[in-house]
Design brief:
By secondary structure, this protein is mainly α. The protein has 3 domains: 99 residues, Dna Topoisomerase Vi A Subunit, Chain: A, domain 2; 52 residues, Pheromone ER-1 (Up-down Bundle); 184 residues, no CATH class. It is built from 18 helices and 5 strands. The strands form 2 sheets. Strands 1-2-3 form a 3-stranded mixed sheet. α3 links the parallel β1 and β2. The radius of gyration is 21 Å and the shape is globular. The C terminus is likely disordered.
């Protein structure tokens, strides 16, 4: 109804994600049609969490030629209610006041940090680093480096030395690249410590999945997230997207957890259990919780390491698929080669980053 109301009252250039979180793929599609995107969010806590995810989803597309802004409405309003109550001119004024990506990124990094102390400045810079690294090389990225240097009371050279090379830097000889096209939407399933391509099927899990009582690596990390769903909520939009794209039942339940996090924030298992009532995967999730030994005790640290390891491997697999797709697209769209370089640099960064020492083998 937000899109309908905006279209009726003079803003036909609006789209919505139909209740799901914004992903990098959504942003990529938007920039096929425009060089300027303004995200509009409710002013409540859920809206702020959604805005943070949209920021993370947008960073890899934040080039010098594009404009990305964030509009926050009063807490009691969404776009539908605001434009109907205050009119077209008032909403246009809100658009004009939207925060540029650079300012919102700095606000996210500084949130809840006491910048009058060295500890608070270091904390803000630490939050800003993974966001900055996702940006493509360019003037905007260099300017933001200066902003973070000023915030940290360091020079740009000092903070660059601490942060290391960016994900968008570096070039690759494309002469040895493969050209066979693969389905970029396929996400790998982790089996026996290796990756293989699954067939994704929505809805209820298979009979074998529902009757198998032995928890797998995927089961263990899912229980870890059910036990401490803040671990999922604090992940980047890119990381969350590879979990929600897993085949059912795991991907379906991660998508449900994403909606719960958007609506309610962190919740204990007891609250999640109540929210699952009537869900198609209710019985499967409850049985999984009950059969896993961590369901009645604190989760060991290795389960959280498994979550990080799983996400890393899935991200690498997806980036490889997207690289192949970009090479195939380059035959008709030369700019796809630049996209390939970005994807390759991002994958190499992930592959070269150390994994947790305690990471257990996925089963």
């Amino acid at each position: 109804m937000d899109v309908v109301a905006l279209a009726q009252l003079g803003f036909p250039n609006a789209v919505a994600t139909l209740g799901t979180a914004c992903t990098p793929e959504h942003v990529q599609k938007l920039f096929r049609f425009t060089d300027s995107v303004i995200f509009s969010f409710d002013g409540d806590a859920a809206g702020k969490r959604a805005a943070r995810k949209a920021l993370e989803a947008s960073l890899s597309w934040a080039s010098d030629e594009r404009s990305i802004k964030f509009l926050f409405l009063p807490e009691e309003h969404d776009p539908d209610s605001y434009i109907r109550e205050h009119g077209e001119a008032a909403f246009a004024s809100k658009i004009a006041q939207a925060l540029p990506l650079s300012r919102f990124m700095l606000e996210v990094a500084k949130e809840n940090s006491d910048l009058s102390t060295a500890e608070g400045r270091a904390q803000a810079a630490s939050r800003g680093r993974p966001l900055w690294l996702k940006m493509p090389e360019g003037i905007l990225k260099r300017q933001l480096l200066g902003e973070f240097a000023e915030l940290s009371q360091l020079t740009s050279r000092e903070i660059l030395d601490l942060w290391g090379p960016s994900a968008g830097s570096g070039n690759r000889d494309l002469s040895g690249a493969g050209v066979s096209r693969k389905n970029g939407g396929t996400i790998a399933r982790l089996q026996g410590g290796s990756l293989s391509a699954p067939t994704k099927s929505p809805g209820r899990p298979s009979q074998a999945a529902r009757t198998n009582k032995t928890p797998t690596g995927l089961d263990q990390v899912l229980v870890a997230v059910l036990n401490d769903n803040a671990a999922f909520g604090c992940m980047s939009a890119e990381e969350q997207s590879v979990l929600t794209a897993l085949p059912s039942p795991h991907g379906t339940l991660y998508a449900w957890l994403d909606s719960q996090w958007q609506e309610h924030g962190q919740q204990p298992w007891a609250a999640l259990r109540e929210g699952l009532r009537g869900h198609p995967l209710e019985n499967w999730a409850v049985e999984l919780w009950a059969t896993h030994e961590s369901g009645s005790s604190d989760l060991p640290a290795t389960d959280h390491d498994q979550l990080q390891t799983l996400v890393r491997r899935l991200l690498i697999q997806r980036l490889k698929s997207q690289e192949t797709e970009a090479i195939a697209d380059a035959e008709h769209h030369p700019e796809a080669l630049e996209r390939y370089k970005e994807l390759y640099a991002r994958r190499r960064q992930l592959e070269q980053s150390p994994l947790p020492e305690a990471a257990a083998k996925m089963g």
